[in-house]
Amino acid sequence: MGILAGAATLTGAGMINLLGKTKASPSEKVKVLTSDGKLVEVEQESVTSTSTSGGFEKIREGIPGKKFVMVIDLARCGNERTCIEDCQKMHKVLPPTEYIKVKRMKDSELGKPYWFPQLCYQCDNPPCTKVCPVDATFKRSDGIVAVDPERCVGCKFCMAACPYSSRTFNFGRRQQVAFSEQHKDDKNCCTLSHSDTIGTVSKCDFCPEEAAKGNLPACVRGCPNGTIFYGDENEDTVTNGEEVFQLSELIGSRAGYRQFETLGTKPRVYYLPQVKRNFPFEEAAAKHNNEE
């Protein structure tokens, strides 16, 4: 906790009850974390608990019978950035905030560079959920790791714990605040991870509200090259909207892998190696992305 406290600054509520849902008598002392990262003991009655209103309780319920999974074919990615732009529209976030990042990668000195889309991997053993002091980020039954914006206090512990740097923080940029206010009544926004609240964390959420309607996530629909496949592990099927594959066969025959497998996080996103590319790598597109 000490390491994480040093890497994160609390915003929003001044103190967070580290005991979570543990009940205590009014005279009992409890440990809390102050906004400057210090662990202190105070009277229970002086701590204001963080609770979730009914509006976001539904996000904790996974879609019954589903286990969502994604496959990304690196040989098809041409850094068109439409996946990023469509994701931003879906979640109502403005640049430079990006839930999907397309990175320039190169595996060896003699190898050629390629594009590597990276997003939240919805891990089955997510380190982010283990460090959240208020249970704002959690694992759903359908495989999705979600964020409850009404519980999030912006401590950034989850950001520090994620080895994939997949989360973003709402610093309250004036343009984003104005944009969010303008679209606050838009019912087409994915609410699982989108939050208008300044000082909270958000991320990619696999667009489960779209899946519940029978639609593919915004990033899958937006890719012109069919790079991203989405589906249900329980059904052993993934699709990019045009092609349908058996998940286990696709991963097995194409040597699919998960990033940082040895960490034991068990990501729900698989990559297909960038062999037999559909088109050559173009350096001109690198101006929008991070270096390898």
The structural class is alpha+beta
What is the top-level CATH class of the largest domain?
Answer: Alpha Beta
What is the CATH topology of the largest domain?
A: Alpha-Beta Plaits
Q: Roughly how many Å is the radius of gyration?
A: 20 Å
Order of helices and strands: HEEEEHEEHEEHEHEHHEEEHE
Helix percentage range: 10-25%
Write out the strand line-up for the largest beta sheet, numbering strands in chain order.
13-12-11-4-14
| Tally of strands | 14
What would you call the shape?
globular
Itemize the secondary structure elements and their pairings.
Blueprint: H1 2-7, E1 15-17, E2 29-34, E3 39-43, E4 68-73, H2 82-91, E5 101-105, E6 114-118, H3 127-131, E7 137-139, E8 145-147, H4 157-161, E9 167-169, H5 174-182, E10 201-203, H6 208-212, H7 218-222, E11 228-232, E12 237-239, E13 244-246, H8 247-253, E14 269-272
Descriptive notes:
- By secondary structure, the chain is an alpha+beta fold.
- The chain contains eight helices and 14 strands.
- The protein has two domains: 2-46, no CATH class; 64-288, Alpha-Beta Plaits (2-Layer Sandwich), CATH 3.30.70.
- Strands 13-12-11-4-14 form a five-stranded mixed β-sheet.
- The protein starts with a helix and ends in a 20-residue tail after the last strand.
Name some characteristics of this structure.
Alpha-Beta Plaits, three-stranded antiparallel β-sheet, five-stranded mixed β-sheet, alpha+beta, 8 helices, 292 residues
